[in-house]
């Protein structure tokens, strides 16, 4: 028997064992092909009721994720409760049962109809104890949390303290969570920023101006990098890279020498040189012949109807979260890597630094001439 046939037989037999939930995968490689083998766990707790909440900063596509969680739950015969205003809703018992029609016509809406908040009370043991009281009073069996690293930190602690099955869905425009190639809202935010850059370039070209455009990204430069390449910026400055004013001046002088009709520089809000106004002032000191303007996009990037990519991503992750809970998954974040659904321990997702792709900086430099 060949290795391949032996593995195929083992895999087929292994996955048909009745009465077991499968929630751990082992990956095998054979002739450049990846095989995933599911390991059975002991019988997982039956999930009859799920609570879903959105927490932290809102992101376009959160509504699509809630919709997917609700409809997938009902498809599998599970009751689902919407928890309003994030963890505060769990503490204050602000929740209600959701039905198929509760989530009609929200796929295209930005924001989150469940509302969101950053809960200071949930940071305390007393607050989490109150949340658990309401969790049990509602007879919930599991929790789906849609948000970013702060939301997941709270979910992880809550799950450890009270042995509550929890799955996180990454909803943040920053795209800064490890364990997924993209987070919900990132694509929409990039497109919003790029549309603004395109419009600003029109006026920059008309008046031969230099624009500094500040985008969101306090700790991560993913929006800045993608919108800069998509918007044809001459340079981008992000928190992860230690660019100096001298390097920026050199790039701008090179553009001027090549008779660039317009110059746009993208600044991530968390860059080490300061905000867009700070950087513009430092450049003006050395290149006073430029007519300089500054635009801060701010919370414009959080709003708007989600792109098709964000709607599809949110839908996939919402369904996978429910299916993961049914299979015994807990304390994990569901994500997509290489277009495949993955489950990453929440602790790993929030502690691992997600790095920018250096090749994108190389490409941006080549195209900036």
Automatic annotation (TrEMBL):
Q: Where does Mg(2+) bind?
A: 149
| Xref: SUPFAM superfamilies | Phosphofructokinase
**Active-site residue list:** 174 (proton acceptor)
Provide the GO biological process annotations: canonical glycolysis; fructose 1,6-bisphosphate metabolic process; fructose 6-phosphate metabolic process
Keyword Nucleotide-binding found? yes
Q: Which UniProt keywords apply?
A: Allosteric enzyme, ATP-binding, Cytoplasm, Glycolysis, Kinase, Magnesium, Metal-binding, Nucleotide-binding, Transferase
Where the record annotates domain Phosphofructokinase, the positions are 49-324
Q: Which reaction does it catalyse?
A: beta-D-fructose 6-phosphate + ATP = beta-D-fructose 1,6-bisphosphate + ADP + H(+)
Annotated EC: 2.7.1.11
Q: What switches its activity on or off, per the activity regulation note?
A: Allosterically activated by ADP and other diphosphonucleosides, and allosterically inhibited by phosphoenolpyruvate.
Q: Which residues bind ADP?
A: 67-71, 201, 260-262
In the UniProt record, the signal sequence range is none
- Family under the similarity heading: Belongs to the phosphofructokinase type A (PFKA) family. ATP-dependent PFK group I subfamily. Prokaryotic clade 'B1' sub-subfamily.
Under which name does UniProt file this protein?
Answer: ATP-dependent 6-phosphofructokinase
Gene name, per UniProt, is: pfkA
């Amino acid at each position: 028997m060949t290795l391949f046939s032996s593995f195929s037989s083992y895999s087929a037999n292994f996955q048909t064992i009745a009465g077991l939930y499968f929630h751990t995968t082992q990956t095998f490689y054979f002739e450049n092909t990846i095989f995933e083998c599911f390991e059975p766990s002991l019988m997982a707790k039956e999930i009859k009721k799920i609570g879903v909440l959105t927490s932290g900063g809102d992101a376009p596509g959160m509504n699509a994720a809630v919709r997917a969680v609700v409809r997938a739950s009902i498809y599998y015969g599970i009751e689902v409760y919407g928890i309003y205003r994030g963890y505060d809703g769990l503490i204050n018992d602000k929740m209600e049962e959701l039905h198929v029609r509760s989530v009609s016509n929200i796929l295209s809406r930005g924001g989150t109809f469940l509302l969101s908040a950053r809960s200071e009370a949930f940071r305390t043991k007393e607050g989490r104890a109150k949340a658990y009281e309401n969790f049990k009073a509602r007879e919930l069996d599991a929790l789906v949390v849609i948000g970013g690293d702060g939301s997941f930190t709270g979910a992880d602690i809550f799950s450890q303290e009270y042995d509550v099955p929890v799955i996180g869905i990454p909803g943040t425009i920053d795209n800064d969570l490890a364990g997924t190639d993209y987070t919900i809202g990132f694509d929409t935010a990039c497109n919003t920023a790029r549309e603004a850059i395109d419009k600003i370039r029109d006026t920059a070209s008309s008046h031969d101006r230099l624009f500094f455009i500040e985008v969101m990204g306090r700790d991560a430069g993913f929006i800045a990098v993608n919108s800069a390449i998509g918007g044809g910026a001459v340079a981008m400055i992000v928190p992860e890279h230690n660019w100096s004013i001298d390097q920026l001046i050199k790039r701008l002088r090179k553009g001027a020498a090549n008779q660039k009709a317009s110059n746009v520089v993208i600044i991530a809000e968390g860059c080490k040189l300061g905000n867009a106004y700070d950087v513009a002032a430092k450049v003006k000191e050395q290149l006073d012949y430029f007519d300089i303007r500054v635009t801060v996009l701010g919370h414009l990037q959080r709003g708007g109807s989600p792109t098709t990519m964000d709607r599809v991503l949110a839908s996939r992750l919402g369904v996978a979260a429910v299916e993961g809970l049914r299979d015994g998954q807990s304390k994990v974040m569901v994500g997509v890597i290489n277009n495949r659904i993955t489950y990453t321990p929440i602790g790993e997702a929030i502690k691992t630094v997600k790095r920018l792709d250096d090749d994108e900086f190389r490409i941006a430099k080549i195209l900036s001439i």
